[in-house]
Specification:
The protein is of the alpha+beta class and 476 residues long. The protein is 31% helix and 22% strand. Helix 1 crosses helix 8 and helix 2 crosses helix 8.
Length: 476
Amino acid sequence: MFDVAVIGAGITGTFIARELSKYQLRVLMIEKDNDIANGTTKANSAIVHAGYDVLQGTLKAQLNVKGNKMYEEVCRELQVPFKRIGSLVIAFNNNEIKLLEELYKRGLSNGVPDMEILSRERVLALEPNLNDDVIGALYAKTAGIVGPWELAIALAENALENGVELFLNSTVTGIKKIKDFYCVKAGNQDINTKLVINCAGIYADKINDMVSDIHFKMLPFKGEYNLFDKNAGDMVNTIIFRCPSDAGKGVVILPTVHGNLLIGPTSELVDSKDALQTTSEGLKFIQQHTKLTLKGINFGNVITSFTGLRAKTMLHDFIIEEAEDALGFINVAGIDSPGLTAAPAIAEYVLNLIKHRLGNIQKNEKFSSSRRPNINFMELSVEEKRKIIQKDPKFGRIICRCEGITEGEIIDVIHRKPGAKTLDGVKRRARPGSGRCQGGFCTPRVMEIIARELGIDITEVVKDGLDSYILTGETK
């Protein structure tokens, strides 16, 4: 019998699982895919928002500002890249200046510190590549950027090290209330648990409907992105927003924690929760709107495009509550923007709901807040490189030339917990295939290493999902 089953291993589910690992609870994460962070968490803007945009009095406002303040500590503990680079909401006319003033007042009401409205001269001094027609901007110093999938993987690893269990490839197909516990049908297993936490993202409505007659609908909004080579990463120094509208925050321009330039997203309500294809219309929209904001941008430096789905509801706020007709079943749904920012605060909020249901729970005195850091060979000193190669010669063999990733680093992430089992799983953890050639050189070598380390045939190595096979067999 588990105390808590968390359905969904994205950024919200992994934050909650790690928070629960601080207590003497038997906790299980259930994930339908074959890896951590395989949904919205792997395809979003990677922004830690300041909190001036969300409506006062909402859960979003409360948890955004609180979550923002928690990022330094958790990223330091887990050694995940996080940079507090600040954000600008730029204005091109007097009506937009009025909107900046409204956002500034809203930010003050939400408790956002370190904001100011900048003149045209100060904006261009900070961001010289902006369109010369800019007349002002709202600057928020506390905004930042993070590696969202790296953070979720680190959270899961730390949670597992502290006793949490994980079932991958386990789609939840049914939940039944049996007296004072739930029986969750996941994959081919029946899992008994006192409490269920629904963190299923765009599928949260489907999970909710298995146990509750109080329904809500998840609306999948598709967002397309362009990722640029690192030679474009210094085009901007901060996160650049246009003035927000009913459609959202618009096309955002920002550097990534690894030095690339990211532009997007579009915002389109789609019928399918599997609508992950990019479109010529969407990418054209990004290009047109970017050129209105940034001068000198060269779209020839785009190295890849991708799509993510955001889980919205008609309520325009997070749904974080126990179902009234299913006690012990807690929904954590509609976690769209600023969900990544709010995630650490959401975890604490859910913990309090769990404490209310389970009563007094004891601290886990053996809890460790840190994890063994990933080895980043290219960031080591010459002497550190020499020592690690002496210890393990595989760190002397470069596999990915674009990013300078070694065989030793790839082997390390395969054997961590939860280890990489797919090509993209290795990419998200160690970054081979993330550079200019997008794996054109290193993919066969990474596949060989995965097959060797897992003891499988190379034809069994998949790109990402269960059926995303790359090779079908030998030609000779």
